[in-house]
Amino acid sequence: MNSESLFDLAKSRQPADRERLLLAIADLCDSPHASAAMKTPSIQALLSSIFMSLVVEAERDIRHRLSQKLAAADWAPNALINVLALDDIEIARPIIAQSPVLHDLDLVRLLIEATIEHQIEVARRPSISQAVVGAILEQAEPAVLTALAGNHTAELTASDMEELVEASRQIAAMRTPLSQHPKLTGQLAKRLYLWVGLALRQGLAERFRLDVTVLDEALAASVAEAQHAVTAETQLRTSREGEREAMEQRLVDKLHAAGQLRPGYLIRALREGRLGLFAAALAVLGRFEPEQVRATIDSERPELLALACAAVGIDRSVFPDILDMTRALNGGRPGGGAEGARKASVAFAPVSPEVAGAAFRQAARALTMAA
After folding, report:
1. Angle at alpha carbon of residue 325, lines to 358 and 313, rounded to 5°
2. Which pLDDT band holds residue 42 (cuts at 50, 70, 90)?
């Protein structure tokens, strides 16, 4: 494209012409005739101003084509390259992967400000420096660590490799690339051996000539230790749940004894996200068996919960909110969907709270016996 054509495009305000101008300037700058003068501060400032003013209005496919043109260009303005690197991932990918204009600070900024997809591309970039590696390890995002584990050209120190191998204990996707990494040592291979699958264990044993008998004994001990840890954690969680339930029951009993336990407290408990407190208060208010209330909350029959609420004086207009909050806190239970909610409204028929309570007890008794 000659200079006259470029001048005509520059005068035009049509989006299509401005996009053609954008690509034409990129081609002109990348031509064999372009000299080192392209990198001088004055030319860089001018190019940056021109490109940025055009890119702002450019359509997505034009930005995509521009990123492909500029990915390897060492003359491209830094501001423009950083804008493209933060664009949609398909536009940013070639820039992040190749651009010599992106410096360590630019890459670290992407790790902090951009999406996970952008961060993964940074971790895959050839020959990333120790500074960039350190930022990735500090953030410890699993998908980005996995990408780094597969980057054999990254500047990884011995301690970096040790950190990656340790992270693979929790992040299974890292194990295969790490087992094939050229910087994996025999000592680290022994640690990796303890939490990889059979096929990878065989590969590690052959590559590093590991003593499989000793490692399998260590593996068995590690499995036993892990099972013990899981059991202990389960027991601790169960104990804490029991303590919380006991505390909630004491609170409900105290309020009831003081005459302060009223139907409105049920709504307050749910709004505070305390489903256990709601169940305990409902049981006390309605003089219901606690296990029947819990079974009702976990059932597929929201009409039973409606009967219990009607028995303690909850108004029909309030029940839909109670049902929605209970489901939100309890994984969608009581189930039944919209049809179940419609059936539940029938529970607020013009009967006394005593009749609603008796109906609940009978239905809840059958529910717990069936379970």
Report:
1. 35
2. low
Looking at 258-289, list the stretches that DSSP marks H as alpha helix, in order from N- to C-terminal side: 264-271, 275-286
Please report, for residues 149, 195, 201, the alpha-carbon distance to residue 204 in angstroms, rounded to integers and kept in the order given: 16, 12, 5
Q: Cα separation of 312 and 287, whole Å? A: 9
Cα separation of 29 and 36, whole Å?
11
29 burial level (CB within 10 Å; 0-12, 13-18, 19+): buried
* Angle ∠(169,175,181) on CA atoms, nearest 5: 125
Residue 300 DSSP label = S
Residue 28: pLDDT band with limits 50, 70, 90 = low
**Cis ω before 126 (30° cut-off from 0):** no
Averaged pLDDT, 281-286: 95
Q: How far apart are CA 49 and CA 230, in angstroms?
A: 60
Token duo for residue 24: 């034409």
Within 10 angstroms of residue 247's Cβ, the number of other Cβ atoms is 13
Q: What tokens were used for 16?
A: 């299509």
Query: Is residue 287 very low, low, confident or very high in pLDDT (cuts 50, 70, 90)?
Result: very high
Q: Alpha-carbon distance 292 to 333, whole Å?
A: 15
Quick one: CA dihedral 331, 334, 336, 341, positive or negative?
A: negative
Backbone angles phi, psi at 57, to 5 degrees: -100, -5
Q: At what angle do helices 41-55 and 15-29 cross, to 10 degrees?
A: 150
- 70-91 pLDDT, tens digit per residue, is 899 888 888 889 989 998 999 9
The CA distance from 250 to 180, in Å, is 58
pLDDT digits (tens, 9 = 90+) for 217-257: 766 766 566 565 454 454 545 455 667 777 788 888 888 88
pLDDT of residue 30: 60
SS3 category, 296: helix
Q: What DSSP string runs through 34-84?
A: --GGGGSHHHHHHHHHHHHHHHTT--HHHHHHHHHHHTT-SSS-HHHHHHH
Q: What is the dihedral of CA 197, 202, 208, 213, to 10 degrees?
A: 90
Give the tokens for residue 328: 């939100």
